[in-house]
TrEMBL record:
Protein name per its UniProtKB record: Flavodoxin/nitric oxide synthase
Domain FAD-binding FR-type: 464-581
GO cellular-component term (any): cytosol
One Gene Ontology MF term: flavin adenine dinucleotide binding
Length: 735
């Protein structure tokens, strides 16, 4: 189904229900109660009479027991009993009589007056607003019809799945009840009645019987006044068994009363007990209504707390190269072992409102780029602008390096925005300059004291390793004659000592003394050559104050100025977040745009060096197959060897393989969703912010939705956020 149509149906389903919620509740609850009426009536009565009463005998009987003609209805029961509904001065009651003795057997209480009120509520809200009920019934039919288009039922235990399953199972019954309700309001499928003068005076039972005398009627089964001056009477006579409408003007035979539509609507087509089906319909509707509103409210309130629902501390982080993430994990471990109940999440997995649900929120946030917030914190920071957090109490540890122009700028701006949103800062902000271990330890001590726990032992955070590396090989990876491609080089660097790292770790390169370092993802494995590491380096450029193009200092050093055999001082930073899974059998999906392929060459190389390896699927996108399909030869060799299980390519400027990585995700969505939901795969994505940072999560959300797992956008988004926070989806964004 087209996404736009689905969105429209979802809007109808959700907003009609919410807009008409009180009305729906009244109609559903009163309908459920009314379903009980025939049953209660049946329980109170003896089984129905088989024999009707002769007309003359009925006249004599009524003349004696009801001389003032207060009878509104008469029914017969087995054992010679008649039950009269009598009224006096607006009061109504049922009384049973012995037909032979003509004596009262006492009042019959089955809550007739109560059901009368409920019926009134069900039909016109007790305010003569039958038209409002009619409109609500149309709306309900729309809501019911829109529902099944939104999700397939699945056998899984979650409120959403129960909502879907019950909706699907009871749909025919619910449609039947609501459509017959509308038909009744339109008087379709009910017997065609003669015109009834609603303003005429009350027509008493005596004149009705007199009129019947003048016809061929011999026996009466039951009779009931349904308007002030109109009765329905079921009779036997020479013309057979008939249903008559009697008014002051005369007698009209009609089809069976109240008609098949009303019987279907009331559920009484198979006797009083089949009416209980309507109780089932009402309970199903009530469940769908309450669960639907609850699911919506839960999403709306941003109740995105997952995992430990009782946690009273939230540890949230925004990290670019993994340090803040690692410190957050260590903080959580230390406080947990002291007995605190903790939830840990990347800021990208949270909505600001969620912070209000915890006693304290502890934030660890680094600064990247030129004073920027890491990608995992940007959406959160923007969302804070329109949030009001009056129950949030937070403590913040900012990571940075004072050799950069804007020291701890991301931490500062997060702090400002939180305070502006109304959150209370409970500890002075801590700023770590360079290696953060010492500052973090002090901060952890303060935090532990604040929350009242004794922190457990902490593991040291690996510090950056200084490394002297010699350039051994440099090869241009793009086609220098193709102006559409960006200048990209593959470098092999060598150390005197064996190296300890995993693919995805970062090599920090300072282009000069006092210059800020630039991180480069390492795309090799020490399993292949323990002294070597490989980089894929794009030559960046920026426009200076005079409008001239200046090459990036670190990239031009690596790609141009550094000579073969020359040595450079660097440092190696562990980037645990971008390590391949520890289990070599776990399926991995690698999504790379442009230079984002850099770490993944190392991922596949690591798998190639392992004997017991799981599947690897690479989705790579760039501009031109013949200009910038980096590492093509190696990738194709790995594919032929079966190391690379699947390779999908998107070259945006080539007509034959056009599109972007997100288009390949959409093409292969069924397989991708299957790998994620049933094969415990992990996704890694690396590339520029515009491609990977937003397009990949959006494409994954869309893939889930299209596969109906789940079908609602906000739920699919929550699944993708969940993958991000539990490490099933790992993004590495390069500027
Ligand atoms: C490319 C790059 C840019 C950085 N920019 C800044 C900056 O503008 N201001 C600052 O205080 N620190 C800056 N830093 C230092 C980091 O904030 C610091 O290394 C921090 O520990 C990294 O934490 P993370 O691994 O969680 O991202 C930068 C680091 C790198 C590698």
């Amino acid at each position: 189904m087209p996404a736009r149509l689905r969105r429209l149906l979802l809007c109808l389903h959700r907003w009609i229900t919410l807009a008409l919620a009180p009305l729906f509740l009244v109609i559903i609850l009163s309908g459920g109660l009314l379903a009980l009426e025939p049953v209660v009536r049946d329980l109170a009565a003896s089984p129905g009479a088989e024999e009707p009463i002769p007309l003359a005998e009925l006249q004599r009987f009524l003349a004696e027991v009801d001389p003032q003609q207060r009878t509104r209805a008469l029914t017969l029961e087995q054992g010679g009993t008649a039950v009269l509904e009598l009224s006096r001065a607006g009061e109504r009651w049922h009384e049973a009589f012995d037909l032979e003795q003509r004596t009262s057997l006492g009042e019959r209480a089955y809550g007739g007056a109560f059901f009368q009120t409920v019926r009134h509520l069900h039909k016109d809200l007790m305010l003569d607003l039958a038209v409002v009920v009619e409109v609500a019934s149309y709306a309900l039919i729309l809501v019911l019809i829109a529902g099944p288009w939104l999700a397939w039922p699945r056998l899984r235990h979650s409120l959403t799945q129960w909502h879907t399953l019950i909706g699907w199972l009871t749909l025919p019954l619910l449609l039947l009840v609501s459509i017959t309700g509308v038909l009744m309001a339109l008087e379709l499928g009910t017997p065609r009645l003669p015109p009834v003068d609603r303003d005429a005076g009350r027509l008493a039972v005596g004149p009705v019987l007199q009129q019947l005398e003048a016809t061929e009627t011999t026996h009466v089964y039951r009779m009931e006044r349904f308007e002030r001056a109109a009765w329905t009477v079921e009779v036997d006579g020479t013309a057979g068994h008939r249903q008559l409408i009697v008014t002051a003007e005369g007698i009209t035979p009609v089809d069976a009363y109240p008609g098949w539509v009303a019987e279907l609507h009331q559920g009484t087509w198979a006797g009083p007990w089949s009416g209980l089906i309507n109780l089932l319909a009402a309970l199903a509707l009530l469940f769908l209504f309450i669960s639907g509103v609850w699911l919506w409210a839960r999403r709306w309130l941003g109740g995105r707390r997952r995992g430990d629902a009782d946690a009273d501390l939230l540890i949230a982080y925004a990290s670019q190269t993994g340090t803040a993430a690692q410190l957050a994990a260590e903080t959580a471990r230390a406080l947990r072992s002291g007995g605190a109940r903790i939830e840990e999440a990347a800021l990208s997995a949270l909505e600001p409102k969620a912070l209000d649900g915890y006693r304290y929120t502890l934030l660890i946030v680094s600064t990247c780029g030129d004073g920027d917030m890491p990608d995992t914190g940007r959406t959160f920071l923007a969302a804070l602008e329109s949030s009001s957090l009056n129950r949030t109490r937070f403590a913040l540890l900012a990571l940075g390096d004072s050799s950069y122009r804007h020291f701890c700028a991301a931490g500062e701006s997060l702090r400002t925005s939180l305070r502006r949103a109304g959150a209370e800062e409970v500890l002075p902000m801590a700023r770590a300059d360079g290696a953060p271990e010492a500052t973090w330890q002090l901060w952890l001590g303060e935090v532990a004291e604040l929350v009242g726990v004794q922190p457990g032992q902490t593991k040291p955070i690996p510090a950056d390793q200084p490394l002297q590396l010699t350039l051994r090989r440099r090869e241009q990876l793009n086609d220098p004659n193709d102006p559409i491609t960006q200048e990209v080089w593959g470098l092999t660097l060598e150390s005197d000592t064996p190296l300890t790292y995993r693919p995805g770790d970062l090599l920090l390169v300072r282009p000069g003394e006092g210059e800020p370092a630039r991180p480069y993802s390492i795309g090799s494995t020490p399993l292949d050559a323990p002294h070597r590491l490989e980089l894929t380096v794009a030559v960046t450029s920026r426009t200076d104050a005079r409008g001239k193009n200046r090459p990036g200092k670190a990239s031009s050093l690596l790609a141009q100025r550094l000579q073969l055999g020359e040595t450079i001082a660097t440092s190696l930073r562990t980037h645990r977040h971008m390590h391949p899974p520890d289990d070599p059998q776990q399926p991995i999906i690698l999504i790379a745009a442009g230079c984002g392929i850099a770490p993944f060459i190392g991922f596949v190389a690591e798998r190639a060096a392992q004997s017991q390896r799981g599947p690897v699927w690479l989705i790579f996108g760039n501009r031109r197959r013949h200009g910038d399909f980096f590492h093509a030869e190696r990738l194709q060799r790995w594919q032929a060897q079966g190391v690379l299980t699947r390779l999908d390519l998107a070259f945006s400027r080539d007509p034959e393989d056009g599109g972007y990585v997100q288009d390949r995700i959409a093409d292969a969505r069924a397989m991708l969703v299957d790998w994620m939901l049933h094969r415990n795969a992990r996704i890694y994505a690396c590339g520029r912010r515009s491609t990977i940072g937003t397009a990949v999560p959006t494409a994954l959300t869309e893939a889930l939705r299209q596969c109906g797992a789940p079908a609602y956008r906000d739920q699919a988004e929550a699944v993708v956020r969940g993958w991000q926070s539990d490490g099933r989806l790992r993004l590495d964004v390069i500027d």
